[in-house]
Amino acid sequence: xxxxxxxxxxxxxxxxxxxISESFRYQQIRDFALIADQGGLDSIWAxxxxxxxPASGPRRGVWENWTFMTxxxxxxxxxxxxxxxxxxxxxxxxxxxxxxxxxxxxxxxxFVVGLGAGWHEPExxxxxxxxxxRVSLFADSLEIIAPLLxxxxxxxxxxxxxxxxxxxxxxxxxxxxPLMIAAFGPRxxxxxxxxxxxxxxxxxxxxxxxxxxxxxxxxxxxxEVGRDPAEIEVSAGVTLLDDAIAxxxxxxxxxxxxxxxxxxxxxxxxxxxxxxxxxRPEPATAPMYELVARAAEILRNS
Length: 302
What we know:
Blueprint: E1 13-18, H1 26-38, E2 43-46, E3 51-52, E4 60-61, H2 65-75, E5 80-83, E6 86-87, H3 93-106, E7 113-116, H4 121-126, H5 134-151, E8 153-157, E9 162-166, E10 179-182, H6 186-195, E11 198-204, H7 209-225, E12 233-241, H8 243-246, E13 255-256, H9 259-272, E14 276-282, H10 286-301
Parallel strand pairs: 1-2, 1-14, 2-5, 6-7, 7-10, 10-11, 11-12, 12-13, 12-14
Antiparallel strand pairs: 3-4, 8-9
Helix pairs in contact: 1-2, 1-10, 3-5, 5-6, 6-7, 9-10
């Protein structure tokens, strides 16, 4: 792995985010995943929510992530996949490790354990999940998840989570699936620096000062915990809009097609030093996923 900010060997990995809201049925989502898998993309991702309750407008339903990920593990053959990112306070950390280990086995070693502390308070309130101390809960959970997946054993007592167990049987990778953490605040960055194999930040158009500031935070946190930042891959989420939607949006926190233009944006991220770009197409349609696949092919051949 190379430090953020250095040039990453071409081609940078290119993935896509999948829609998982009430607007899509599983078969549609599966079809999008197969476009990525068969079209040469590197990964597929899906958000982890129970619902989304905006400040105004109706509540939007969301399919449960882990069940859909399990289906996609069997449907696909070559792409990496994972949640972007799993809300740890919704689940027991021991069960997260057990399920991640099993899903890595089902997929033949393609699962990435994307983890986060959550942010959408109405979801927490609906089921009395811990919100106020969710970062502390996340910290205790990592003390359980990481050792179980990496060494197969945990012996930890924390204020918000405890674990005393041996994980057996083990999945296909001796050190378990990689841990990817999405983080922004100082405490979360420090946890990322300590535990993560990969760091994700989103959502962007092309590389900008906001992105570089997030990478600088990670470097600072690595210095604080005594870890080489080159040990952590950096990935970025990029919003991809079609022309009609782009015409209604302000700012530059998105990219558009055609494939050649998107390939130029992907090249800019490669040159920025990221290991992977996750494209989130809006609208989520087969032609938009095919567009990402074509852009990735152009990038590989450039």
